Amino acid sequence: MASPIPLRSRLRRYGTSYAMLLPFLALFAGFLIWPLANSLYLSFTKFDGINPAAFTGLENFQQLASDARFRHALGNTALYVVASVVLGTLLSLGLALAFNGTGWLHRIMRTVFFLPSVTSSIALMLMWKWVLYPSDVGLANTIVGWFGGKAVAWLATPGLTIPILVVMSVWGGMGYGMVLYVAGLGSIPEEYYEAAKIDGASTWHRFRHITLPLLRPVTTYVVVTGLIGAFQVFEAVYIVFSTGANTIGGVLDSGLMIVPYLYDQGFTHFRLGYASAIAWVLFLIIFVLSLVNLRVGRAMKEL
Amino acid sequence: MAVAPMDTIAPAPQPSRHASPAGGNRRAKINGHLLRLPFYLLALTMIAPFYWLLITVFKPPRELARTPPSFVPQSPTVANFYDTEWTPKGINPGHLAGIFQRYQVDLGFWRFMLNSLVITTAITVGSLLICSLAAYVISKHDIKGRRTIFLLIIASMMVPWQTTLIPNYVIMRNLGWLDSYAAYIVPALAKAFVLFFLVQFLQSLPNELIQAARVDGAGEWRIWWKIVLPLLRPALAAMSIFIVLAEWNNFLWPLIIVQSDEMANIPVALARLNSYYVGPDHQGAIMAGGLLASVPTITFFVIFQKYFTRGIALSGLKG
């Protein structure tokens, strides 16, 4: 395609534009596109970070398919993701419905629930670890003691790991979802409710046929971003449940998930090729979720 | 750690929705509170861990190991922050000193706060400048390939950043950047989400101002600096809060690129402190660190609250 404008004048005309784009594009290519391509390549190799990567074809992926720890990590992640997203979304919506007013009490309550979203996340993790301290000096066990119970080894009981991670995630995230839902509620025209009232619709009917459908874009966003975030959980597992480099997933791997396993393979065992394969499994999962998000978003707009 | 009530996210006043006919008002109010009772209880569970953190910080080690624990510090102390009797020569893991002197690095704990502050500020300012430049070109310049570029950038938002973790680590190592500010800052500057958000914001603004400036003979750089950036101010404020929170809390990347104690950011420093000392009598100092780590983000939030909640709302409703 020959352009009618000569190259020199085109350069003069667009040179500044490209110069302004350059910093972003250079960094974008250098630290995102190239590493992405590179990680795909590495996922087909055996690479210890020191010796050159040796191409091994699909070996890493075949090994992943039969890796019991990886399958365990996937199962844990699925359980954690579903539980934390379902609970988190329901509670976010409930909180928004309960406290979307302008009065001081509602504002204070919103602030209370939002507090974890602005607190340093590492501080929250360390705080939870201290709350769940195994002996009677911990807050959780003190409360258990009030009801006559014996001290629980919260962080050393495999069956409690995922429930605790879910509670921590919901506790920390529902205030954020609440803010989104409050904004969504505020954008529903009051007239809809007035009209429904005149038609004699009950509170439940108004909620079911006006509020819920109109909140659907917010719900989609809360659910999908929640899913994507939950798949990437690392810090909570690493800080709260790991006591050393060898127990990255908590007691008996009870809290092992995708990203902690990626870290474990890549940076404690230096199997960088294998870890890259795990990274690509994570990528595929999140890619599919994002596509679903786009699709649903487009469908919403057409409605 | 008081946070001002979030009045800015409240929807427009809607007097009619919950109001009942006169007379039944008081009853409706009581009913409303009864319905909300589970949420009030939930609010207690929100507050309790924070209260626990707050009192722990002011307890001396002996009181921290006591059963049952006290709910009001019996002999409050600030030794968890700063212990005047501590000397570097007498390091004894059993005895807890203040966190400022705990580390064998210059400036003690302040060093990590300073690291986090430098990194977060550099990334926030740098990425907003770089992204706003690119956003200006993509939304207001008629250049070839801008659609393709924009599409590529949007598509990249689907990539979880952990996928690029290993190659980026190798790049940092090959560049000799491990354990440096550059490794924190440079890879974090091109943020697809920020660019996307700024493009959306710019597209909703009229072109006339920019056209007028061009007619007056202003260069593109000047237009960006004098017109586009001021116009973008609300969007930049909203984005800056997202970036500050994310970078202040960044953990996995620093965990990988940081080797020396000197270069740790706050999360990595606290995680190390936590893995060195695990007894209940150490919790005072660890929690003191956590409390200090939270002060900047909470302060930032209180100052920019309006933009923050608006930014969340915008990102959620448009996304």
UniProtKB/TrEMBL annotation, chain A:
Compartment(s): Cell membrane
Coiled coil: none
Pfam families, per the entry: BPD_transp_1 (PF00528)
Matching PROSITE patterns: ABC_TM1
ABC transmembrane type-1 domain residues: 74-293
Membrane topology: Multi-pass membrane protein
Sorted UniProt keywords: Cell membrane, Membrane, Sugar transport, Transmembrane, Transmembrane helix, Transport
Superkingdom of origin: Bacteria
CDD domains listed in its UniProt record: TM_PBP2 (cd06261)
Listed transmembrane segments: 18-37, 78-99, 111-131, 151-171, 218-241, 272-294
Similarity comment: family membership: Belongs to the binding-protein-dependent transport system permease family.
Protein name in UniProt: Multiple sugar transport system permease protein
Organism per entry: Nonomuraea angiospora
UniProtKB/TrEMBL annotation, chain B:
Sequence ranges assigned to domain ABC transmembrane type-1 in this UniProt record: 113-304
Record flagged with keyword Endoplasmic reticulum: no
Organism the protein comes from: Nonomuraea angiospora
Keywords, sorted A to Z: Cell membrane, Membrane, Sugar transport, Transmembrane, Transmembrane helix, Transport
Pfam name, any one: BPD_transp_1
Region (Disordered): 1-24
Localization annotation: Cell membrane
Family: Belongs to the binding-protein-dependent transport system permease family.
UniProt topology in membrane: Multi-pass membrane protein
UniProt protein name: Multiple sugar transport system permease protein
Ranges annotated as spanning the membrane: 37-58, 112-137, 149-169, 181-202, 223-245, 284-304
